[in-house]
Amino acid sequence: MIVRPGGLLVRAGRLLLMRYTYGGDSRYNIPGGKPDPGEDLRQCLIRELTEELNLHVKPGKLVFLVESIGGEREVLHPLFHLEVSGSADPLLNQDQTSALEVLWLDAVQVRQLTLYPHIPDALARWLEGISPDTPYLGRVDQPWAT
Predict the structure, then answer these.
(1) S-S: 51 plus which of 69, 83, 96, 137, CB 3.0-4.6 Å?
(2) Are 133 and 63 in contact (CB under 8 A)?
(3) Number of helices (H) and strands (E), helices first, in the chain?
(4) How far is the CA of 66 from the CAs of 25, 42, 78, 100, 122, in angstroms?
(5) Are 58 and 49 in contact (CB under 8 A)?
(6) What share of the chain is helix, strand, coil (3-state, %, to 5)?
(7) pLDDT at 146
(8) Which segments in the chain show pLDDT lower than 50?
(9) How confident is the prediction for the chain on average, in pLDDT?
(10) Would you state the pLDDT for residue 70?
(11) Whole-angstrom Cα distance, residue 69 to residue 127?
(12) H-helix or E-strand spanning residue 58
């Protein structure tokens, strides 16, 4: 199983997501990535968001823990709430990511997306101020754009 920490960054009730295109379809990822050898999950988020979005973040509370299953690919996603130090305006670094753009989306918009990991309802409820009883959401089927 792959471990891919992600960061939940909210501004004015909107969640920061990265848009990718695969097979002509858009997919929206929570910013994050895979840890380098010897790197813990929070260090990974700090590095990934600095490299890909030029954001300096401080990972906080673990909000969600979800397993995504797509074909033979199994990924564990620990999702942390993020705080930004310095500018909160992401600047997409095309040398570090294949994302096409970054977007700030509200709960209504999030519910309509194909997300990675695919937990649109849980994220939308969280944006609306409804915290889960437990961070662990279990396993979700991951719809992949093909």
Answers:
(1) 96
(2) no
(3) 3, 10
(4) 23, 17, 7, 25, 11
(5) no
(6) 15, 45, 40
(7) 39
(8) 145-146
(9) 93
(10) 83
(11) 24
(12) strand 56-70
Nearest to 6 by CA among 119, 143, 141: 119
CA distance 28 to 93: 17
- Read off the tokens for 126: 């969280």
Length of the chain in terms of residues written: 146
Residue listed under structure tokens 């890909």:
52
Residues sharing a CB contact under 8 Å with residue 122, sequence separation 6 or more, in sequence order: 64, 66, 132, 137
Contact 54, 127 (CB under 8 A): no
Distance, CA of 146 to CA of 9 (rounded, Å): 28
Measured CA to CA, the distance from residue 50 to residue 104 in angstroms comes to 18
Q: Are strands 73-85 and 2-3 parallel, antiparallel or unpaired?
A: parallel
pLDDT value at residue 1: 93
Whole-angstrom distance, CA of residue 135 vs CA of residue 61: 10
Query: In angstroms, rounded to a whole number, what is the distance separating the alpha carbons of residues 83 and 7?
Result: 9
Give the whole-angstrom CA distance, residue 68 versus residue 145: 14
Amino acid occupying residue 102: V
